[in-house]
């Protein structure tokens, strides 16, 4: 089962590196000068990620990296018209004679004349220009305009509206990308992995849109700089904080409120941003609970904070922090004393889960062609159940006291250091290379229990241990223009994992290419091999906090995948629309599932390896994406036709079965429209083939009172199709101190009874046996008031 | 107060909206089901009905039906049930024990042995069942070796709880010699015996069994639960449990008798029996959870459903 990588593979890696370096070196044959710098928002100083920067005269160009940095080397003494543009911002042009290296930072102001569509340069790198495919970024302002359940803007629910991304169950914030599982998404918040990105059992995501700057989802064709997961990378950057003046924004909604404050610590040198969100159903309910009868409640909160500091013109430091917590809690106090005896008891219990991340990043411009980012991150996800009971009893002639404590927890912690270098020797090459080391600490199930009577320990239990896995990776990639028509991103990632003396390695070639058929139409293809050294044990498939993260071990091998994709991308109608069509085929192996009958309560101690079985998966399909990013009316339409199957020797009698979220057809239509006088309208409509389910087909008695169900083939039945329309109207009012936006939204506007789950039962009105479906959300109106100052 | 009323109204409104979700019948095209015979039996080497065995100590023959069939599930009373050894020789014939009074049925589908055959550890047996209107079914299983117990000790103590004053409480320690390199399956049960070493009808259970989380599916050795030797690679399973059982039971003539001895049974299950019981337990556990993956119950019956398993029983009697 274990995969060995003989020397010939290493030789290939060396040859690949030489190939890339050879191209890069050849570029120095002609005398060139470099224009480099940043592209930033003029008002806030925020870096603009992915902004297009190109020479209007030669057509040579590049785009800003994740820190807003660009570098473009052009022939010496040429006259240059350097244009930069970004969606929603004005275009700026720099004219100069390139006699020496130039450092220039573009500060872009907002483009308030969107009615007139800028055809050429009103967007980021054009879809047909880039080699990247299967990659989508959603502007934050669009994200905030999408109608939301209970008014809570949700990053992940918006991403679910993109082709190739499935939504799981009704209202849930799970991500299922191109037939992959929920654990196969690398979700990065400022470079730190977030292991459980949901609140309230998956109904809301942990990301507070007010604190975010940029979101990018990579579904395939992964560049070599990404690794560690099979199916997608969701790269989220937090805002850096306004460098120029103190600003704030917030909102009050039905279930939660949030507030974001940002501003300069030292103008143009250092800034901060702090953003917090909390639900308040528990606070609203508290006055109606009698304390002497007990208190129960639930809340979640998030806190994002970030500092950034320009150490020098070439060095910048970022420190970002996130903490989030969900808590169900209850407290009961009982006093059953009478005239003879006294009995007093106090019970507390809680169910908590949440993430903490910390990220320290240092940007250094080593030269005008070489950019270094060094990142150190810490991430922890923990789920725990706590129970406490204290009781005191006294009676004539005696008394007793007892105390009982139980804590069950599972967690995963990551400590990571990585260095990423961007090297731009000339417009024909964009070389990235770097290395990363991660220490994962896993505690998949730990139990501490102590029972004390009258000071004497009656029962004590301590189970569970920690496993440490060390992961390291190096990568190199080059986005190389081989001709005017052909551009290739070629790279490789070499990664290894060491756990309990067992070493796994993986050499992962990554190739993506685009060929321009004409000015606006490109054919694209990509291949990526990926590996993943961690697994998520789940038997619900809906992202419950009880799901356990575990490492690959001697017994349980890593997950590995290969994905090929081909497609075409084109801008149409004078560049107002982008359309892309992609087909993909992905194979996965080493994916694990609980054996039939096992669940998380069996994983106390370190015996989880015996509870799982490994198998394979296949996913393939086609996606169509039509997007309009500019103008008074914008939005997109996505369609996915897909298949996703699994094969496990120990499940479903060894026969292939559809994945739980195998969805043949998936359609989403998203519309944003600016009306007059500050009014805005948005809507989404989604349609999806019903989720696959496993149903009992027959039953029998195995003993007089022992009914056994015979289930059919796994996931061989379908729920009803899912469709839903959401609407939102908002009115923006300008105030002397800022801006107020009132938003009314309708979730499930025509109140479709979408199936949440199915069960077998008999009707209230008849004895007829049927399957019944339960719907969760009917039409749900909500109102949100948000403000900016 | 007005503020609270407003909050209350808002809260109720929100909850009402959330709870408006409703259910509806969904038509599902379930393929038609052809009823099949079903079998459930655990062969054991005790030579008599082992203490604590209920349905499994007697053969049960039933029939399957489609899930949308509105009839009550039924047993089969007119089956021919035979046991064969590995050489094909019939070693036992079972007869239906059920009674139908017209008003109610007892023991319906239950079959008792007629020839007193005692299976032998290490031997394979095949049970064949035929009944009019059904395809015949059969299942084969091999009786496991009996567990070897090297040490057994019960240390009695005063009841830890005032409500347990009439109970027998203490710490049970056993050492089971486990065969290394082979997966073995066990269950430990304790019964009360009277002074004549007859059963008194009660089974011991663990003191303060619940620790707040249902660990019933864990593989840790515990009283009354099936466990494997996977957590005990050394070849010795040191079993310890604080147990409690009623101090007074009933004699075979129905009189109250004090418990004087403990019968500790170490049951070694074969894989068929272990898988059937574990998967049945898992199916039962997942019944209430619509999001859990389904769990099919282990089946080793050809042309039908159910399981034929085997258990070898090692008995240790401890004086109180």
UniProtKB/TrEMBL annotation, chain A:
Keyword annotations of the record: Cell outer membrane, Hydrolase, Membrane, Receptor, Signal, TonB box, Transmembrane, Transmembrane beta strand, Transport
Membrane topology: Multi-pass membrane protein
Regions that span the bilayer: none
Taxonomy of the source species: Bacteria, Pseudomonadati, Bacteroidota, Cytophagia, Cytophagales
Domain (TonB-dependent receptor plug): residue spans on this chain: 151-229
Name by which UniProt lists this protein: TonB-dependent receptor
InterPro entries per record: Beta-barrel_TonB, Beta-barrel_TonB_sf, CarboxyPept-like_regulatory, Plug_dom, Plug_dom_sf, TonB-dep_rcpt-like, TonB_box_CS
Entry-linked SUPFAM superfamilies: Carboxypeptidase regulatory domain-like (SSF49464), Porins (SSF56935)
Location of the protein in the cell: Cell outer membrane
One GO MF term attached to the UniProt entry: hydrolase activity
Main location: membrane
Family per record: Belongs to the TonB-dependent receptor family.
Signal peptide, first to last residue: 1-29
Annotated TonB-dependent receptor-like beta-barrel domain residues: 306-745
Gene3D superfamilies in the cross-refs: Carboxypeptidase-like, regulatory domain, TonB-dependent receptor, beta-barrel domain, TonB-dependent receptor, plug domain
Pfam families, per the entry: CarbopepD_reg_2 (PF13715), Plug (PF07715), TonB_dep_Rec_b-barrel (PF00593)
TrEMBL record, chain B:
PROSITE patterns: PROKAR_LIPOPROTEIN
Signal peptide location: 1-27
Pfam family, one: DUF4249
Alphabetical keyword list: Signal
Protein name: DUF4249 family protein
